[in-house]
Amino acid sequence: MATQGRDAPTRRLEGEFDYVIVGAGTAGCVLANRLTQDPDVSVLLIEAGGKDDYHWIHIPVGYLYCIGNPRTDWLYKTVAEEGLNGRALSYPRGRVLGGSSSINGMIYMRGQREDYDEWARVTGDSGWSWDAVLPVFRGSEDHHGGANAYHGAGGEWRVEKQRLKWQILESFAQAAQEQGIPATDDFNRGDSGGPNGGVGYFEVNQKHGVRWNTSKAFLRAAMKRPNLTVVTGALTERVVFEGTRCVGVEYRGDVAYFARARCEVILSAGAVNSPQLLERSGVGDAARLARLGVGVVQDLRGVGENLQDHLQLRMAFRVNGVRTLNTASAHWWGKLMIGMEYALFQSGPMSMAPSQLGAFAKSDASRTRPDLQYHVQPLSLDRFGEPLHRFNAFTASVCNLQPTSRGSIHAASANPEDAPVIAPNYLSTEEDLRVAANAMRLTRRIAASAALAGYRPEEILPGPAFQSEAQLREAAGNVGTTIFHPVGTCRMGRADDADAVVDARLRVRGVQGLRVVDASVMPIITSGNTNSPTLMIAERAAQMLREDRRATAPANVRNEVSASATPA
Prior knowledge:
- It comes from Paraburkholderia caffeinitolerans.
- One of its GO terms (molecular function) is oxidoreductase activity, acting on CH-OH group of donors.
- Keywords: FAD, Flavoprotein, Oxidoreductase.
- InterPro entries: FAD/NAD-bd_sf, GMC_OxRdtase, GMC_OxRdtase_N, GMC_OxRtase_C.
- Its EC number is 1.1.99.-.
- The chain is an alpha/beta fold and 568 residues long.
- The protein has two domains: 280 residues, FAD/NAD(P)-binding domain; 190 residues, 2-Layer Sandwich (Cholesterol Oxidase, domain 2).
- Strands 1, 2, 10, 11, 12, 13 and 24 form a seven-stranded mixed sheet that branches. Strands 7, 16, 17, 18, 19, 22 and 23 form a seven-stranded antiparallel sheet that branches. A two-stranded antiparallel sheet has the order 3-4.
- Strand 1, helix 1 and strand 2 form a beta-alpha-beta unit.
């Protein structure tokens, strides 16, 4: 009989399943759908949060009411960061069905060809190359433009154009073009719109102006199948081993439970929660586990290391003679009109993704590919969660797509209710500091372009006093904040890579029956928003699990699995 944990006699046996998935976020929802397409496979999906039935999840602008809300957000914070001049940041992560796809910016972005070709190089697996993953992206996709060489149609993951335009954004796009950033209508061909990047409106994961999260896209259909069990409001405490084989998980809902996995346990708890769950279960750096008072199952020094994130530098400019959301929503009648437009047409400001216009550019001419991404908004505020300014303004946030700084996320204790220690280590390298200063200079050049001159833009954040290289670096520490893209804390790598946590097939090294499938496995952050790349990882993982099951099953079962598997 399986060892059921420290207090096994008090734990109720939930049951035995072929696969137990921890986390019903982006990856978990995809896995639950794909694995249960085989009616002979039973799956338990465990989610710490609740159902995605909160109305603000589905209204796009509702991210304002989901981030920082304990109903939908883990409410994590970073440590005080030296690179941010001693500031600590809120670190939102979705705690609800759909995970962060229920509270994020809805931007559909894949990244650049070079990102995935580098994954293939560091893992030794060509299946992670751009040419190999492009069909996987296409297979999930339902693109508004239909199927072509780069996009798919008929998949679960709906991609639409945004349902609004602002003159200030149109003018910013023209200004960017004046600075050598060409116009593009597609950021997702692998080249960021061409060798010099591009500027255009982001495409979004919405359906008719309503958020399209992975719970709607993948989980709801799967929940109608009798071979899927979904448990919400259940905090996973640790995974359970017999020797070095993972045999199940302990979690706590109304009482304490143990669920056995006949085949595998899959951690899809995200880049923040998967590493600390491994550590609480005895997988991690042995010295660190000893300090936590956790027995060592497998000594893996890379667990929780290699944290990468995109740090956005928020620059705001006051403008004249053009309308922005600051004044459009300043009075009750403006709010009423905005509400009526959304109620009648699902368009207008309430259908807004947090950022509408995007641009990819180079921080300096020596770069072989774009290393900057802009998120441009027709609004301004002092900091997230505070009221909009009472004057017209726009914000141009710019992030380093390929940061060299590396941080960490580790369990603070063996208690699963204790928040982890999140230390992103932003702006800790000379290269990242140099890119930050150059990015702010480029933003100022765009703001000073002829296309915006009629609006007389006036920089209000960080302010024109910051001019020298040293001052710009200081300003980056003042205004820098996360754009919510943590990855890499259980990264994949070759067998001879001592810092890799999982192999190229996402199996945790040194143990059996345990995989990690979420953004934590990325060895290098993608050059753009990270939600859809995580979805692609889950699609590939589902195919790997099918292949491994076929390889170990009797001949008659292999045929059934092969027939039931739907190509990703």
